[in-house]
Amino acid sequence: MSGMNGxxxxxxxxxxxxxxxxxxxxAQAGCKVxxxxxxETLAAEWQRSMAAAGHxxxxxxxxxxxxxxxxxxxxxxxxxxxxxxxxxNNAGITRDGTFRKMTPEQWTRVIDVNLISVFNVxxxxxxxxxxxGWGRVINISSINGQKxxxxxxxxxxxxxxxxxxxxxxxxxxxRKGVTVNSISPGYIGTDMxxxxxxxxxxxxxxxIPVGRLGRPEEIAALVAFLxxxxxxxxxxxxxxxxxxxxxx
Length: 248
Ligand code: CAA
Hints:
Elements: E1 8-11, H1 17-28, E2 32-37, H2 40-52, E3 57-61, H3 67-81, E4 86-89, H4 104-132, E5 135-140, H5 143-147, H6 153-173, E6 178-185, H7 191-194, H8 198-205, H9 216-227, E7 238-241
Parallel strand pairs: 1-2, 1-4, 2-3, 4-5, 5-6, 6-7
Helix pairs in contact: 1-9, 3-4, 4-6
Bound molecules: acetoacetyl-coenzyme A.
């Protein structure tokens, strides 16, 4: 992939299912990869297993839902690494439940971690990218931000919000060589999807034309493409990777 060797890539929630595949793919392409984490002990174990597979990933503790945490992370990374070239806003959680049963905590936590975080983190690095005249912001949204999903008013609102953010910021940064795009994965075989009750999950898989869950590596490949120089003309886009479950 052209133009990625030596670039600094920050992946929020890089220790998760899709995040791990993104970190591995960007490290393979020659990036200096940094992942945020919350639990440093668990993350250190993850870091060792990534290293054993040949992928060096630095860790920075940061609760992406906290602006203060993100500010401190920004100061540290901008100082130690000279900024971030490729930012992947990947951190996300679910707190599923029908709207009538949804608590304010379920609503707020999902909006904070999945959407407010995108402001908190991107704000720390966008000036650096624009000043350098090169940058990539890649937001991991979801099929459910495009089509909605029974039991996910909180999650779908946050994921749809990420794309509004993407289109607006893309317009503000285009002249400075910084592209901003979102990817909307469908159902990928990660712990998050495996946590759905089996019967419900099987009904969902039956609605996927390719007949299977996606693989984290299939999302990571798309991230790597958007991060490279070949994707310089793609900005403000929302690229679906959902096995045909939702089209248009
Ligand atoms: N459409 C219409 N009606 C449905 C329905 C659907 N998809 N699913 C359930 N119902 C019905 C139920 O049959 C029930 O009907 P009755 O009251 O007549 O019996 C009614 O709706 C309400 O059901 P409950 O309130 O009892 O719902 P529940 O609490 O048992 O389950 C839920 C709700 C946990 C949200 C469950 O529906 C669920 O797990 N849904 C899947 C959510 C989902 O897809 N999450 C994705 C997580 S992974 C992810 O988010 C990654 C990504 O980006 C894709």
